[in-house]
Amino acid sequence: MTVSIIVPIYNVEKHIEKCVRSLMEQTYEDIQYVFVDDASPDNSIALLKEVIESYPLRSKQVSLLAHEKNKGLPAARNTGLAYAGGDYIYHCDSDDWLDTDCIEEMLSSAMHENADIVYSDWYLSFHKNERYMRQPECTDPKQALSAMLDGSMKYNVWNKLIKRDLYVKNAICFPEGRGMGEDMTMIKLFAHAQRIAYLSKAYYHYMQTNPTAFTKLFKDSHLNDIFGNAQDTIAYIEKVFGSELFSNEIRFFQLNAKLPLLFSDDRAMFLVWRSWFTDAHPYIGMNLSFSKRTKFIQYAAIKKQDWIIRLYNLILFRLIYGVLYR
């Protein structure tokens, strides 16, 4: 079995070496490495080539594709997908890194369970600390879909090993031109999976280089991306399963899709939050996956108590993540 690892590259010269070394040193041998240069303006590609040269036994397994101009993350993933020939696909962002047994253990689970998708726990990594991010154990795709929609399971692209046939047979690709929320594509893949497997172990280190970046700054284009991708995902789920099976979970998904707007220093984002998916507001209390504090700030937003949201962000993101996690 061959695993294709797809790695988009753009402006990551500070992190690319650690990422690529973690990929080259995977214990599993039959890997196709597909690096996609999305017209990176820095020294990332030169550093990439230097690292690859230091692993001569892997060099023939490496392909470097290039965009003439920057097209964005979804387009880079799609370029990699179109080229990939592996039985399974794994996505890795070029500022993150993997434990060396990641691919071997995830593929072993896929073979043992005859799974279309294997997902695992992951690390939220800071400069000096890490948080272990545990995922729920789901036994079938519909349970996993419910968990992703209600927010108890993350639909990130990078902690999942996925059979390539799921992409090909269902013509699933990433939303080019709409980078924010492109991870929602994982929900579409789970909608077509027959069997899934969960590994209660973390392999992927998602690097948070600036803890205060948890407080979001959204451009109008970002907002359009998030809203458009959320609407597209909902339409896809309803096309595959009808409008009733996940009706409550879709409301939870709408709330989760707009929740990052409350983690902002910009009060205008609170106004946007109040304008999106208003029919979902009565479902805040029904979502058992929301913590009490998450429900609290959403209710504060409904009541237009924006000072509470700002105080919450100050305490959580500036103090806890900005000081305790660095």
TrEMBL record:
<dbReference type="Pfam" id="PF00535">
    <property type="entry name" value="Glycos_transf_2"/>
</dbReference>
<dbReference type="InterPro" id="IPR029044">
    <property type="entry name" value="Nucleotide-diphossugar_trans"/>
</dbReference>
<keyword id="KW-0328">Glycosyltransferase</keyword>
<protein>
    <submittedName>
        <fullName>Glycosyltransferase family 2 protein</fullName>
    </submittedName>
</protein>
<dbReference type="InterPro" id="IPR001173">
    <property type="entry name" value="Glyco_trans_2-like"/>
</dbReference>
<feature type="domain" description="Glycosyltransferase 2-like">
    <location>
        <begin position="4"/>
        <end position="179"/>
    </location>
</feature>
<keyword id="KW-0808">Transferase</keyword>
